Amino acid sequence: MHPLHLPGSFFIIIIITFVLIHAPKYASSADERYVKCNRTFACGNIENIGYPFWDSDGPEYCGYPGFQLNCSDSTQEIRIGSATYNVLEIDNESRVLTVARTDYLDDLCPPSLINTTWNPDLFEFTRHTQVINLYYHCLPPPPPPAPLTPPTPIPNPENDEYFNHFTCNGYGNTPCGYYLTRNLSELPLPAHIAINGLLGRCGDRVVLVANQSEIQSLETSQNLSEETLVDALEKGFGLQWNANNSLCDQCGGSGGLCGYDKVSNKFSCYCTDRPYDTVCPTGQFITSL
Ligand SMILES: *[C@@H]1O[C@H](CO)[C@@H](O)[C@H](O)[C@H]1NC(C)=O
Ligand SMILES: *[C@@H]1O[C@H](CO)[C@@H](O)[C@H](O)[C@H]1NC(C)=O
Ligand SMILES: *[C@@H]1O[C@H](CO)[C@@H](O)[C@H](O)[C@H]1NC(C)=O
Ligand SMILES: *[C@@H]1O[C@H](CO)[C@@H](O)[C@H](O)[C@H]1NC(C)=O
Ligand SMILES: *[C@@H]1O[C@H](CO)[C@@H](O)[C@H](O)[C@H]1NC(C)=O
Ligand SMILES: *[C@@H]1O[C@H](CO)[C@@H](O)[C@H](O)[C@H]1NC(C)=O
Ligand SMILES: *[C@@H]1O[C@H](CO)[C@@H](O)[C@H](O)[C@H]1NC(C)=O
Ligand SMILES: *[C@@H]1O[C@H](CO)[C@@H](O)[C@H](O)[C@H]1NC(C)=O
Predict the structure, then answer these.
(1) CB-based contact 25:16 (threshold 8 Å)
(2) Where is the Wall-associated receptor kinase galacturonan-binding domain (predicted)?
(3) Between 20 and 30 A from 148 (CA), which of 102, 154, 196, 277?
């Protein structure tokens, strides 16, 4: 008996056949994370949303921490810091997110007072964005002191376009609040002193953010009412986001999809075969076609 002796070419044929039979299966079994993140989604009335955002339907690893959206039929919200925001626009070209505080949509007196804050690693001011200060729980202005000398006119800071009072039904005090659209230190001295006196009698301060052009039109409107301020806040403000943007650009350029790995706690680039740190290996893009 001779040992079974097959010619080398027969082996090559077997190998080629094996590869051909399994090739379609191999190509379709792309990495699960790549397949799951190969999508955009709609949230409320915004469509075509992708990385770094994710929603409760999509896997968390397709987005970046801090960019979870809360979607319902007609609303789309995001939590930044301790506050909840209505998402008005997502511009993925300029990477600007336009948001408005949900607790200031109807009036200036939310049940709890929360500053607009964000993680500076993730979000930055845009050049259109400006701070506005609201003061709450203020005592009424003190009566003017009895004049010893002939009275000099007391400046009334509420005549200034950048400062005014508002009232909150239910908060108890009238006027219970003031808002100031400028930095106190930048004001002319008489106004600075007068406003400082009024604000010194306030218990709380809230820092909000609005679109600069909305604040400018608020200042020039000659119609300083609570509603005009509420309107200005409702228009929202832009935040430039950074979710490892440059890594994501490199990943996308190599044919990968951006994501985040909660285990290693860093950016991850999903390629058809497996996740990589930054980019898919050369040739990945061709084989994924
Ligand atoms: C990714 O999505 C595109 C468009 O929906 C689809 O044509 C393609 O087959 C998907 N790729 C994979 C690997 O799932
Ligand atoms: C999502 O939004 C709904 C409706 O505004 C709200 O009731 C719910 O608490 C939110 N969920 C989270 C996790 O923020
Ligand atoms: C923006 O999103 C669209 C739709 O998902 C996508 O086709 C486009 O490549 C994205 N642009 C950038 C700069 O990420
Ligand atoms: C107020 O001052 C801060 C810091 O000094 C500055 O960043 C901001 O632009 C100023 N705001 C206005 C409205 O000038
Ligand atoms: C908001 O921030 C300002 C300045 O950082 C602080 O003085 C104020 O107490 C904060 N207000 C609230 C309600 O946390
Ligand atoms: C003042 O603003 C309120 C709210 O935006 C608006 O309803 C009202 O018509 C305005 N009044 C004038 C005189 O412009
Ligand atoms: C702010 O207002 C300007 C002028 O109206 C507008 O061009 C810009 O898009 C607004 N920015 C945001 C983030 O809404
Ligand atoms: C990715 O972003 C995080 C948070 O901003 C930052 O700490 C980290 O250094 C970034 N990684 C790279 C490689 O840029």
Answers:
(1) no
(2) 37-101
(3) 196
